Amino acid sequence: MKKLILILFFGHIVAFGQTEKLKETLIKKSIKWTQVASTGRNYEEAKKFLIPNMDSSTFSSNGTQLRTYDEKYFSLPVKYKWVSFQTNNHTVQVSPNGYTAVVTFNVDGSYFFEGNEIPYAVRASFVWTKFNDVWKKIHSHWSPRKGAVGIPTKDR
């Protein structure tokens, strides 16, 4: 009986360690995505996070219609310039089958638009799926936090 209890106990410790490592990996991937896509606007790097030949979408923090992370999205110049952009308060939820995860977090920062520095404060959700044993991003949703603003409505 003691052996069975020890096996169950250590099994939970191993599973907990793997879960924590997975959460850490997904947070790092989410932060890297914001550097590559949100502030860096680098399509070649962004494609590494996406499933080939499958649309990945986003609802931007300015309330515009659903957008697709495609070459056009990255090639259209934006009318604002980031001053600062910091993610924080990350949480991760992984589905029971281990193939889908949602990372939620806040972003604080500011950007220049039409000669003014605008404070930026949003919450974001990223949906990740495991594809060929690699976590890929399939959707994101950005929304201003209460009393704050997202990116400009006429951002492009």
Give structural attributes.
single chain, 156 residues, alpha+beta, 6-stranded mixed beta sheet, 30% helix
List the helices and strands and how they pair.
Blueprint: H1 2-39, H2 43-46, E1 57-59, E2 67-68, H3 71-75, E3 80-94, E4 100-113, E5 116-131, E6 134-144
Total count of helical runs of at least 4 residues: 3
Unreliable spans are: 10-16
List the strand order in the largest sheet. 2-1-6-5-4-3
**What would you report as the Rg, rounded to the nearest angstrom?**
18 Å
- Give the amount of beta strand, in percent: 35-45%
Number of strands: 6
Structural class designation: alpha+beta
Helix content: 25-40%
> Would you tell me the overall average pLDDT?
89
- Give the SSE string: HHEEHEEEE
How would a textbook summarize the main sheet?
Answer: 6 strands, mixed
Shape: globular
